[in-house]
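Open question from group meeting: does this chain pack into something compact, or does most of it stay loose? Before anyone orders reagents, we agreed to write out a predicted structure and look at it together. Recording both the input and the output here so the notebook holds the full record.
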Amino acid sequence: MTDASAAALWLGSLELVGALVFASAGLLDMCARRRSAAVRRQIWALAIAVALVLPLPRLALAASGLRLPDGLAAGLLAVWAIGATSLLVRLVRGHALARRRALEGAPMVAGPWHETALEFAGGPRVELRACASARTPMVVGIWQPIVVVPAAMLEAPPAERRALLAHELAHVARGDCLMALAGGLARAIYWPDPLAWWALRRLRAHAEDAADDAALRTGIPSSSYAAQLVAVARAQLERAGRVAADGLRARVRGVLDVRRIRSREPGELRWGVPRLIGAALVLATMVTACEARSAEEPGAGGASRRASERRVAE
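Structure tokens returned:
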């Protein structure tokens, strides 16, 4: 078997196992529909972490005994590489552009926004910047996060200001920027699988819902917070298009849903990055070990049968 054929088969099996991981996360998400958005976000975060570390233990797993024509194998690898590279370039460019725009904003080291941020005792230390070109509040950066506040929202009432900061600081506390980056990397690796794209969308949606729940826990009425989201949706519709605005409309419906669980569940914030990576490595290794064992058993059975046949013949 040529190297190209073995690599193509190995990559194909990786894509199939990754699809199984994302499908399992979707099933768990459905089963956890009565839990909080933070818990459901954790399900997708773990699934994406497993998908990212899955290639590491699978490096020791040989490709199957099948064989692809050299031309077909090389073509499949080239198509995958082109798709993965384009998505990675877009991911890096987007993060770099967001970082540059955030740094163009004016630092807020005093004033009502700075004072409100200090009220969140025990919260993460972040930098606040006011940006005239921003349409919506956002968090930029992983190691040194920056909360970008649109200049049009600087005169927001105290309750709305506190809710907006609570939302963005919840993203920082949960490491949503890092998870969004991890989700983008997983999508680039598994881009032929539609489930990888769906996993990233579900992770982002649940992260936003969990941050909205944190904002509502500040005491702002859900109707007032929903009105804020409607204003943001209008700005998004003007600049980013209908897709982004539709996501905000879904958030508005979730904010106004009185049946949704918003309470802080025990342990929902305890899964930091080290524990997440550790759990992902354990699960990925278990999946690979089970696959390797199932692949060896038929061969071992066949060898024992051939040995017994030789003994009978003798």
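Observations to bring back to the group:
The two ends are 34 Å apart (CA to CA).
Residues 299-314 have pLDDT under 50 and may be disordered.
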